[in-house]
Amino acid sequence: MQFKLISHALCPYAQRVNIVLTESGIAFERVDIDLSSKPDWLLRISPLAKVPVLQIDEDVALFESTIIAHYVHDVCGGDLLSANLLEKYQQLAWAEVASEVLADIGRLYSAKNLEQFTAAMQSIERKFLIVEQELGRGDWFAYGPFTLVDAAFAPAFRYFNVLNDVLEHDVFAHFPSISQWRDRLLDRPSVKAAVSDDYDEKLLTFLKARDSLVGAKANKH
Questions:
Q1: Considering the entire predicted model, what is its pTM?
Q2: Would you list the DSSP string of 86-146?
Q3: Domains of the chain, with CATH numbers?
């Protein structure tokens, strides 16, 4: 089978799929598109006109990152999802927590006033407190191997390479276990390979274009 990942340079959900494919040892072609000028063919393969989309042999397309990850696991096996049914669905549930963190990050950099900004930051920190208490003593989210949960959180953590500098605030200061986990994730080859070398520069440019508090801070950075 041939695989093509339709992506965007900054999309965290596309990063998630990129990580999953790499961890599973699947060779794939990646095509980044401009979401501000979506190609007509995108709607034909993605009903929501969003990325990521995984094309399989050009004939079939899967969309939504968690669905794609589940498919990749079913095809390739491995450790991304547990063989234990209950543990597997717990992992899928924690991956959704990562998705909610990403939604909070979107609200954070889009906030137009201090009230919206504070609400988004507090929501992130509440979730991080829960995750901090959940983390085990191993290198990854659970005690065992690298899983979908790790792949899901890595793109969220990557945002803060830039956001911490722009905000002059270390979001992880009160979450030492998350901070260490984040360092290990961002140093993992599959996570590094999920973005281009100029990702931070592209993200900063994106933030500067936002009509928001974060956008204003980014333009002073």
A1: 0.96
A2: HHHHHHHHHHHHHHHHHHHHHHHHH--SHHHHHHHHHHHHHHHHHHHHH--SSSSSSSSS-
A3: 3-76 (3.40.30.10), 85-219 (1.20.1050.10)
